[in-house]
Amino acid sequence: MNIKELDPDSSPQAAFGARLRRLRGERGWTQDELGDRMGYSSTHLSSIETGRKMPTLRLARRADAALSTGDTFEREWREMRHGSLLEGFPEYVEHEARAAEIRLYEVGVMPGLLQTPKYASVLAQSALKRGAITAEQAEERVSVVAERQAALIRTPPPMVFVVLDESCLRRPMGEPAVLDEQLERLIEFAEQPNTVLQVAPFDMGARRPFNLPLYILTMPDRSLMSYAESAQRGFLERESTSVLPLLTAYHQLQAEAPSQAASVAMIRQLRKGTP
C-alpha cells in the first residue's frame, strides 16, 4: 500500500485511518492479522486506513479492543459523526441525555425519541437515495436514534412531554406495516408513567402557537434551554428570557390539544383505518 495515498490532516476520516494504520504498524501486524482480531476483511480495513470508507461505531469499538486503546477510536468516531450532523444538534443531544424534563413539538415526521428502528431506517434510506448522505451516514443516523432513546432509560427517568402535529400520524412512511408499527409504538409510549402524549389535530388551526418543530429541556438544576432547526443548522438557546416565552406557549399548546386519552383513541382509529 502506498502510504502517500493518505494525508492525515485532510479530514477527520483520514486522521482516523492514519491512526489505525500507524498503531497496526507499531505492532507489526498485517491488515489480515488486524482484520482477524477485529472481524473485518483486510480489504475493508484498507479502505478505512486510506480514508476511502467511513468507519462505523462498531468498527471503532473493535479497533479499541484489538489495539488496547481504551476508547480512543470511539471518541474519534464520535467527533467525526458530529461533523456530519446538523450544526448544533450534537450539543443538544448531550444536554437531552441529562435533562430532567423533555418537551417537544414535531411536525410532519415522528421525533427521533419515538421512532421505531424501521421508521428511522426508512428516513435514512430515503436521504441516501436522494444522494444527501452516504451509506455509512445513513447507518449512523439510525444509530443516533437508538442512542438517544437508550439515554432515556435511567434512574430517575426524565419526564417526556410530546405533542405531535396530526401530519406526523398521516404521512406515509415506507410500507404500511412500518407506519402501523410506529403508531403502536406511540401507544406504548403513552402508557409509560413518565410520559405524556398529545396530538394537535389539523382543526386546531391558528390556535396552535408553533408552526415549526421545537424542543425544550429542563435540566436537573431547573435551568431551561430550547432547540430549533433551520434548513442549515440547529439553534440551542440557553437564555431564560428567550426560553420562558416558548415554555409558556408550549403549555398553551398542551391546553388546546386533546387529552392523552383522546389522542391515543385517535391513533387507534388510524390503525384500524377509520378517519
Key terms:
single chain, 434 Repressor (Amino-terminal Domain), 2 domains, 12 helices, alpha/beta, DNA binding
Outline the structure in words.
It is a single chain. By secondary structure, the protein is an alpha/beta fold. It has 2 domains: 81 residues, Orthogonal Bundle (434 Repressor (Amino-terminal Domain)), CATH 1.10.260.40; 148 residues, Endonuclease Chain A (Endonuclease, Chain A, 2-Layer Sandwich), CATH 3.30.870.10. The protein is built from 12 helices and 6 strands. A 6-stranded mixed beta sheet has the order 3-2-1-4-5-6, with helices on both faces. The chain starts with 11 loop residues before the first helix and ends with a helix. The mean pLDDT is 90.
Q: Spans of 5+ residues with little confidence (pLDDT < 50)?
A: none
Give the H and E element order: HHHHHHEHHEHHEEEEHH
Q: What is the molecular shape?
A: elongated
CATH topology label of the largest domain: Endonuclease, Chain A
Name of the level-1 CATH class of the largest domain:
Alpha Beta
CATH architecture designation of the largest domain: 2-Layer Sandwich
Terminus-to-terminus distance: 62 Å
Pfam families: DUF5753, HTH_31
InterPro entries: Cro/C1-type_HTH, DUF5753, Lambda_DNA-bd_dom_sf
Protein name: Helix-turn-helix protein
Domain HTH cro/C1-type: 20-73
